[in-house]
Each structure stands twice: as structure tokens, then as C-alpha cells.
Amino acid sequence: MNTHPLLKLFPHHYPLSLNTIEQKIVFIDHQEDHDSIIIEGTENFGFQGVLKSVSGLSYIEAPLSHMNANVLRNLFSFTKPIPVLRKLRSFGLGDRLGIAGEGHLAVFKTCDAYPVLAQQSMRELTLTERTYEDVLDAASFAVFKFGYRDGFGADGDHLKKMEDIDKVLKLGYTMITLDCSDYIKNDVMKMTDTEIQEKVTLPEALKSRYLLKPFVIDGAKITFNEIDLKRAYYVYSDAIGYTKKVYDTFFKNKTFSANLELSIDETITPTKPEEHFYVANELALAGVVLDTLAPRFCGEFQKGVDYIGDIAQFEAELKIHAAIAKHFDYKLSIHSGSDKFSIFTLIGKHTGGRFHIKTAGTNWLEAMRLVAFKDPSLYREVHAYALELFSEAKKLYHVTTDLAKIPWLSTLKDTDLPHLFEQNDARQLIHITYGYILTAKNADGSLRFKTRLYDLWRKESETYKTMLNTHIGRHISMLYQGFGQ
Predict the structure, then answer these.
(1) d(C-alpha 25, C-alpha 236), whole Å
(2) Which of 102, 157, 375, 381 is catalytic?
(3) What is the mean pLDDT for each group of 10 consecutive residues in the chain (485 residues)?
(4) Which of 158, 167, 349, 441 to pair with 312, CA 20 to 30 A apart?
(5) pTM
């Protein structure tokens, strides 16, 4: 097939994208500033494109549009996402740029975890001015380009509203991360035991179900006194009710082929193991079937940096959280899992290799590290702009960045710039300002950075692939060490 005469017209095609429809070849060609789908012959098979003829060879050249992505998914089932949370291991990859596919797939072609290639929150879409359609399409085109056929997931990440969940599931996403933070009462952190006792009245059914009745989960004993139970009931009862509403609406009757993840981590309230058990047990009694749950662990899971906190305490609580997840037959989900290298082996160990890890933004940091390597002048512009916008960006993310610890650009040689990504404060500066950088405009309305950045990333795509393979590969390697693989 590689000697097909049509391929001679397209010497820069992606070789792993070569497929056939009714004995006609179809592939994606890499051109100087864009990619195109090439279909042999005059039959378009549903693709919308332009019929061309060169040297007696007819073909259709079609853009990588949303409509053509839908056609691709209909014709080639491996480009359509599948539910992956019931697989033993899964790994979320929030590709904010839509260009990290090859680097990610290079990792997952060599391990047995299932990648969630399409994963963006509503916040990320708003900041980058992308759409859920665009995110899903980028994933489908990536698996087609690079010949990945083992299955990938698509996550409508951190969704809160019923209408958003409905839209994303109808688009074909195979996973919803339900963010219940609006229904979790964080004011409990300021309440004394006496205030809890006075303010909260427990239903009799909960008293008989939990008080002074030990629950033994994989050797760990979980008990509730009245204050513990009142606190759990006060903090999580609304979230439990909303989760049931979402489950009954979208998942109970299996209208959609999709998984449900419950996120109770986007809060300031750490999830104690007994509270995790309470939430899981109440949902199970209500008939809600979860595929994974993300608690708010002790310590800090800040963006783009390693775990901050007492690792011994984290390990002790992780063991119980993992046991609870196993007891209720879902996977434990670790959010803000980017770059948490000091605890990955513990996670692999105590989950027995049954986990869902969610990363976001670390591939963006690798893209910007690439800019620092290849175009120091452009990086200096972006960095200076990020400093201007940091205080605005910080309103949307919980970070403890100290800008005073970031070296002044004027003191750094060009060769020093990539080393900024080894310093936590500089990493977080770039990590959370991505939306402002990508959408910044000049006075004439043209994009200030985005066009130049994407031009560079396209030119250096092989280098970016290698960097991602190494960086995400390190995540996977350390997780797998924990369960002996």
C-alpha cells in the first residue's frame, strides 16, 4: 500500500494514518501550515472537500473540520471514544492546545492504561475559546493520524449544570466528571463541634444506619460518632441529592454509553475517609452506580507542581480511600495529578494498579518549555505578559505562587529560560495564565501570541512529541512501579 501512486503526491503524509474504504485509500497529509484528509478517487464517502486531479490521479482533499470528524468517526470506529473507567487503569490528559495527541499516544502505545484524550472543563474551554466539539475532534484526528486502535475516552470534565452534561453526552463523550462543589458546604471548616451539634438535626434513619456501628473495610475500621455523622450529613447531603438527580436523568436507563465520575475534590474541605464512606454508601443505597470518585485528599494538589503536605498522612488515608473505592466497586480518581511524582508510586501500590489519574496543563507547560528552548525572545514576551495577568488568573485557581521567587528575566541568559520550568513558582505562573496568553490581542485585533506559538509548535512537532513522551511517560512509570510493573 505504501507504494500506491497517490502517496507519491503526498510525501509528507502520516504513514500510520493510511486506511482503506471500499478499497480506496484514505490518509491524512501534513502540509506546511495545515493537515488535510486525502481520499482516493471521486467518491467522497460523506467527507466534504474538493475534488482534484493531478497526473491522472483523482482524489478529494478535505479539511479537518467538525463535520469531517463526524464522518471519520462513523467510518472508522477506532476514532470514536469508548467508556474507559471500567478498565483497570485510565489516565486523563487535558490537552489545552489540541496538538499533544502524538506525544500522548507514544506513551500509551507502550502500556496498558487507557488514555482519556479528550478532557476539558468548561473553565478551560472558556479561557482558551475552544468548544467541546473541537476537543473531541482533535482526539479523533490524533488517533487516526497516529494509528492508535486500542480505545480512548472523552471526558466532559468538571461539569456542574444539567444542560452542559446533556450537550456533552449527545456529542458522544463517554465520561462525565460531575463537579458537586456548589453543593458542598465549605463553611463547616469554620464551625465548632458545638455549632455543628446545635445547627444540624440528623434524620432517624441515618442515626440507626451509622451511629456506633463499626464498618470494617479491608481491615480498616470506620466508625461514626454523632458529631462525625452530623458533619458528613451537613457537608455532603446536597451533593448526594444532586448526584442522584444527574444519575437518574442521564445514566440510570443507559441512554448514553458513558461513565460517571463524581468529583468532591474542588473544595477547601478535605474528605475524611469516613466521609468518603458516607457519600459512597448513601449513593449506593440510592441506587447510584459510580465508576470512579475523586475525594479531596489531605495536603495540597496544586496545579503543575508536586504534592504539598505530609506524605505519611497521605499514605495512611490513601489506603483507606482505596479500600472504600474497592468495596463499592469503583476506581479511586486522583485529580490535579500532574507532576505529583513524590506520591505516584504510593498511588500505584495502594490502589493495586486500579486507578484513574487526571492531569491537566502539564502538556501546556511542556509546550511552553519548548518555546523557551527554541524561541527565547518569544518566551520572554509571553512570560512578561503572564506576570501582568497573574493576579487576574489567580482568581480562578488555588495556587500559593510567590512571584518574588521567580528570577527577573533581565538577569537570565537565553539558555537559562528552560530551567524556569524546574521552579514551582515559575511553573505555576505559566500554568494558570494559559487562557490569557492564548487569547491576547494586539491593538488591531490580531492575536498577540497564539499564531506565533502554534507556528513554532507545528515546526517543532517532533521535539514536542519527544518531550511529552518523556514527561507523561515518567508519570506512568512511577505509577506502575507501585504495583510491580
Answers:
(1) 55
(2) 157
(3) 88 97 97 96 98 97 98 98 98 97 97 98 96 98 98 98 98 98 93 96 97 91 96 97 98 96 91 97 98 97 96 98 98 97 98 97 98 98 98 95 98 98 98 98 98 98 98 98 92
(4) 158
(5) 0.97
Pairing of strands 259-263, 292-294: parallel
Rounded to a whole number of angstroms, the distance between the first and last alpha carbons of the chain is 37
**What amino acid is encoded at 59 in this protein?**
Y
Chain-centre distance of CA 14, in angstroms?
26
Is position 275 annotated as part of the catalytic site? no
* 381 included as an active-site residue: no
Any idea where the domains of the chain sit in the sequence?
5-75, 78-362+471-481, 373-459
User: Which fold does the domain 78-362+471-481 belong to in CATH?
Assistant: TIM Barrel (3.20.20)
